[in-house]
Design brief:
The protein has two domains: about 180 residues, Rossmann fold (3-Layer(aba) Sandwich), CATH 3.40.50; about 170 residues, Rossmann fold. The protein has 15 helices and 13 strands.
């Protein structure tokens, strides 16, 4: 097949999706408004970056013109945009069909807060031939925009269970972070308000009071980084927390490998967060907020615990309980691995998408 993708070059979700179909010897062109993430390689993919882009009307129209030119040159059979924002708008304005759209979450769920955004999202959705999303509540939100339910398919981004699996402990990394002789709790969410890392940090004093050698690894960067570091110092727990910043995706499994528990304090998610699913694939027990569709993936008391949002005492209670119960951590971890293998396997999800592409190509 010949597929043209409109997606961010800095998105690991899009990277995994697109490279899967490139590896299957399809002819792939990828148009991005940002450069490819550092360290990413894209053999057999024609990557086009539209530089100096802004969200002003003239810049968007210029991008549409370039995409139309590229479509004429590459002659794709399918156009697929990731995210119902700028990429979705460019795809809709290109006039190409069949046009597939994959919203991610906030692009749909937050659109209702602005009449202008709502109008643009409606415009984009009306011009799609097919839509994929990764959660049932996302599907319902899309239907509310007047989209026929038969046009919407649930496709998960999926986890590569061949790359994320239990037992990958790096002693070198544990020594580097000075956590080799400590119970470790890890978070992989960005340091942005929606992920509420503040609640995690506020839970640390409660945990270390009960388990003094516990240490926390916080992966990621974001607008709240300085504020969160100041908070950890104010609470007197900065020595218990390792802020490691952004790490290459290929290193994530190593960080999960030295952890005993994974936590997510997110206030909102579309489907299951990729980092939560990666932790589950690596056989970790999880303590996550009862938001989005987390309850669909983790049954409270079976693969981990679901806690209320913005509740540091509940978070600390569950972390302490799990650190005191090694056998339960192992049991939860095995359950989580099985869930991901059965329900969120990257290869199975992309096989579903492959069938959809072939069906759309024939129309």
């Amino acid at each position: 097949m010949n597929i043209c993708f409109l997606a961010g070059g800095n998105s690991i979700h899009s990277y995994r999706w697109i490279t899967y179909f490139a590896d299957k010897r399809n002819e792939i062109s990828w148009v991005s408004l940002s450069p490819l993430s550092e360290g990413s390689t894209i053999p057999e993919i024609d990557f086009y970056e539209i530089r100096s882009f802004s969200k002003k009307i003239f810049s968007i129209l210029k991008a549409v013109f370039k995409v139309r030119q590229l479509i004429k040159e590459t002659r794709p059979e399918i156009l697929h945009a990731h995210y119902a924002g700028t990429y979705g708008l460019i795809g809709a304005l290109s006039g190409f069909h069949p046009f597939i759209l994959t919203p991610w979450g906030s692009d749909i769920l937050m659109a209702g807060k602005s009449e202008i955004k709502k109008w643009f999202v409606k415009y984009i959705l009306k011009r799609t031939d097919l839509i994929t999303c990764d959660a049932e509540h996302m599907r319902n939100a899309i239907i509310k925009f007047g989209v026929d339910s038969e046009k919407i398919h649930i496709i998960y981004f999926g986890i590569d269970t061949q790359k994320f699996f239990p037992g990958r402990r790096s002693e070198d990394l544990a020594k580097k972070l000075e956590v080799f002789d400590s119970p470790v709790i890890v978070s992989l969410r960005s340091l942005e308000p929606v992920y509420d890392i503040e609640t995690l940090i506020r839970s640390v004093p409660h945990v270390v009071k009960e388990i003094p050698d516990a240490k926390f690894i916080i992966v990621g960067t974001g607008s709240q980084e300085k504020t969160l570091k100041r908070l950890s110092k104010a609470l007197g727990v900065s020595q218990r927390i390792r802020f490691v910043g952004k790490i290459p995706n290929e290193d994530i499994s190593q960080y999960l490998g030295i952890a005993d528990i994974y936590v997510s304090t997110s206030l909102s998610d579309a489907g299951i967060a990729a980092s939560t699913a990666e932790a589950m694939a690596c056989g970790l027990p999880v303590v996550i907020t009862d938001s989005g569709e987390n309850r669909k993936w983790v049954k409270d008391g079976e693969g981990g615990f679901l806690i209320p949002v913005r509740n540091d005492s509940s978070l600390a209670e569950k972390i302490i309980y799990l650190l005191h119960n090694k056998e339960l951590r192992i049991k939860f971890g095995k359950t989580n691995r099985r869930v991901i293998e059965q329900k969120n396997n990257y290869y199975k999800e992309m096989e579903k998408m492959d069938k959809i592409y072939k069906l759309m190509k024939r129309k």
